[in-house]
Each structure stands twice: as C-alpha cells, then as structure tokens.
Design goal:
single chain
C-alpha cells in the first residue's frame, strides 16, 4: 500500500506540474487548445500537485509503522 501511495503521489505531482505549465502557457506541448493559456488549469494543477505531495508525505509517514 505504501508503494502504491508513493507512485500515485509522484504521478499526481508530475501531472500537476504539466497542467500548471500548460495553463500558464510556459510550455504548450502537446498542443491542446482546451488547456493552453487557460489559467484555471494552473489551479487544477496546483491542487493535483498538493494532493500528490500529501500522498507522498502520507506514504513516507507510514513507512515507520
């Protein structure tokens, strides 16, 4: 279970960074007119990133149990 939480957390952080980049227009690959330069996707990416960090923290916290 710890490994699953860690993997999902890392994937959420990466997905969040990608969404922030596309929403702010920092990088637009792959080209997606729905996401490119739409700042709400940056907010979604921030939320996904925070959720990922929390999952990573929780998986590491349970490592001592």
């Amino acid at each position: 279970m710890k490994v699953l939480l860690l993997v999902v957390g890392v994937l959420l952080v990466l997905l969040g960074v990608h969404w922030i980049g596309q929403g702010t227009g920092i990088f637009v690959w792959p080209a997606n007119p729905v996401m490119d330069n739409h700042v709400e996707w940056a907010y979604y990416g921030g939320a996904a990133g925070i959720a990922g960090v929390l999952l990573i923290w929780f998986s590491r916290r349970r490592a001592g149990s």
